[in-house]
Amino acid sequence: MASQMLRPRTILSTFATSSQRLTPLVNARWSSHSPLGTTLTTRKPVTINTIQSLYRKNEPITVITAHDFPSAHVADHAGMDIILVGDSLAMVAMGMDDTSEVLLDEMILHCKSVARATKGAFTVGDLPMGSYEISPEQALASAIRVIKEGRVKAIKLEGGKDMAPTIAKITGAGIPVLAHIGLTPQRQNALGGFRVQGKTRSSALRFLEDALAVQEAGAFATVVEAVPAEVAELVTKKLSIPTIGIGAGNGCSGQVLVQVDMLGNFPPGRFLPKFVKKFGNVWEESLRAIEQYKDEVKSRAYPAPEHTYPMTKEAFEDFAKAVKDRE
Ligand code: KIV
């Protein structure tokens, strides 16, 4: 009896009319606090081997950022190969001005949410500024936290030749590293802002050296940000690991975009880099829906009877009488 009383179906059956009892109620939810997750994904989980196999087949590798459970969930269901918990989190999810402010603990918290949602894609978490530059040992300690606590499968860090010993240290401990070269936003102050890299012979040669160094250090792939397409393509051809381009043209081995940007989930007037294509207009749709909700609450059009829980007329009359008897 006690266990029956805990089951929503049993409770509903007690009060519902016979026609309501015919409704399939097994999955009825009684609260807005129900878990978001489903297990619709049937594909085999992407591993580092899958990524290498895509690269060998010359099939573009698809990467997108996610910063929480819902954004990871939708990206996973869409079949992305890699989901990156980028430190763009700082701006697009936490409202900070740049990535220098976000903390390792905050990155780990968001990695956890993304990892919970991701059943198919390979997950990568960014090491934020300050969590890896002091020494390879510091970097390894941070990387271990991102894997153990954040539950993602690999880490990303910014930097080329100078970061090669750090990448070697982390990969040597069995943690896959996605490198990030070209424009490295965490160093924007040293670069004089968000500037395209590799535009001259010497800068492009430095970029090539960075690419070769991170490859030699054991990175499984490298993000290539804001580099002329021709340079990115030629360097991609010189490497034996995939390049994941962002603002680096179509000659890379794959592409990455920040989800909030490509979904158009931001207010009009926000600056967008040239390379971002808006594949949707989530902001407009969200605004429309929330405004309609507001209007319907104000006019009492919502909630309608179909949004309420049923009770038999007799039970209600019984209750109303009890209320009256108390007066
Ligand atoms: O932080 C981030 O989202 C990134 C991608 C843009 C590559 O580094």
TrEMBL record:
UniProt pathway: Cofactor biosynthesis; (R)-pantothenate biosynthesis; (R)-pantoate from 3-methyl-2-oxobutanoate: step 1/2
Database matches in InterPro entries: Pantoate_hydroxy_MeTrfase, Pyrv/PenolPyrv_kinase-like_dom, Pyrv_kinase-like_dom_sf
Transmembrane segments: none
Record key words, sorted: Pantothenate biosynthesis, Transferase
Catalytic reaction list: (6R)-5,10-methylene-5,6,7,8-tetrahydrofolate + 3-methyl-2-oxobutanoate + H2O = 2-dehydropantoate + (6S)-5,6,7,8-tetrahydrofolate
GO CC annotation terms, alphabetical: mitochondrion
GO biological process: pantothenate biosynthetic process
Gene3D superfamilies: Phosphoenolpyruvate-binding domains
EC number(s) recorded for this UniProt protein: 2.1.2.11
Top EC category: transferase
Family from the record: Belongs to the PanB family.
Protein name (database record): 3-methyl-2-oxobutanoate hydroxymethyltransferase
Taxonomic lineage from the root: Eukaryota, Fungi, Dikarya, Ascomycota, Pezizomycotina
